[in-house]
Amino acid sequence: MERTSYCLQDSETPSIAVVNAIAEHEEASPDDIGQQLYDVIDPDALDALFRPRTDGKSRSDGNAVFTYHGHRITYRSDGWVYVTDDTDAPSGASEKKPADE
Predict the structure, then answer these.
(1) Mind listing the pLDDT tens digit for each residue in 7-40?
(2) Which residue among 7, 40, 54, 73 is least enclosed by CB atoms within 10 Å?
(3) Domain map of the chain by residue range?
(4) Per-residue pLDDT tens for 46-76?
(5) CA 45-29-7 angle, 5° bins
(6) Residues 81, 17 contacting (CB under 8 angstroms)
(7) What predicted TM-score, i.e. pTM, was given to this entire model?
(8) Helix/strand/coil (H, E, C) string of the chain?
């Protein structure tokens, strides 16, 4: 099973980092990856889930796991995105663990 690791860049939101990680995994441009992320999950909700807490501190625990176009996507609260091939999972299936409050 092939795996790509991608770390959130300073100017990126979690949803943009996920798109860039998928593009890197598929060796494609983010504009050419096919199915749109919003067809699988709500990008605004993903961004809100992992935005800094109201006191300005980063989220220290939590992740979101979902499938996208045959890939298992894991977004961790530390900003790392992992993309692995997951041909057994139906596209759009999701498993979410909320970030700490």
Answers:
(1) 999 889 999 999 999 999 999 999 988 778 888 9
(2) 54
(3) 3-97
(4) 999 998 888 888 777 889 999 988 899 999 9
(5) 55
(6) yes
(7) 0.80
(8) CCEEEEECCCCCCHHHHHHHHHHHHCCCCHHHCCCCHHHCCCHHHHHHHCCCCCCCCCCCCCEEEEEECCEEEEEECCCEEEEEECCCCCCCCEEEECCCC
Amino acid identity, position 12: E
Bridge partners, residue 83, by sequence? 4, 73
Give residue 101's pLDDT band: very low, low, confident or very high (50, 70, 90): very low
Looking at this protein, which amino acid is placed at residue 88? D
